[in-house]
Amino acid sequence: MSLTQDQNSLDPKLVASMSPAELGNFLRGLRIKKGLRQHEVAARAHVHPAYLSRLESGMRVLRSTRRDTATAILKAYGLDEEFILEIYKLWGSLDGGQLREAGSSFEATSKPFLPLHLPVVEAGAGSPAWDDARETLLFYLPELRGKEGRVFGVRIVGDSMEPLLYEGDIAVVWTEGSYGPGVIVAIGIPGNGIVVKQLYYGSQGEMLMHSLNPKYRDEVPPEGSKVWGPVIQIIRALPGGRPGWHLLH
């Protein structure tokens, strides 16, 4: 099939039967035809550009991604809802009933759990935008399944959040998670990168960044700062060099 064909001439059966590598090539062709770059498609789908890079290279299995996320991605590449719905119906039949809908996600029960590609930034350095991360780590974290493209890590620097967070820890942030007073969050600060602090509000309603280490004072975030989301997990090296993690909530 030519990747330059109009969608009206596409056969959903052919698209649904594609391997991850074939589907990645197909989507790349759609994007190139529209004159779009990966980061532009990623912005439309509200996912990280690195996610689409792995998808187009065949390293991601789209059919095992949350349905709402996968639908947003396919729409961003230019496919309409009716065509996407037909693909999902065909995926279900091709899996012989092993592909089931659970809530808003499709889970391939016969497939092994794949590692999470986690973008990581260093606290207090570089850009205040997490999607400018230059490092990506692989983790097997079942609790983050379905959050791909909406989580990132902040590598802790310094001692301001001890005794909860220590230098070298990776705080995992969910960009769509809810937060309020008392919650540990990641905050993007112009000129100072991303920091991890406890969130509070002052008597005048102003936002305050609170450090758990008492030797540091509370601070008001500079103008233009942005709360990216709550910290939902901590990844750290345990004695013996084995990776470990624990839930905050």
Automatic annotation (TrEMBL):
GO MF term (any one): DNA binding
Keywords of the record: DNA-binding, Transcription, Transcription regulation
Source taxon at top rank: Bacteria
Residue ranges occupied by any HTH cro/C1-type domain in the UniProt entry: 27-84
InterPro entries xrefs: Cro/C1-type_HTH, Lambda_DNA-bd_dom_sf, LexA-like, LexA/Signal_pep-like_sf, Peptidase_S24_S26A/B/C
SMART domains (UniProt xref): HTH_XRE
The protein's name in its UniProt record: HTH cro/C1-type domain-containing protein
Organism (species): Thermus scotoductus
Lineage: Bacteria, Thermotogati, Deinococcota, Deinococci, Thermales
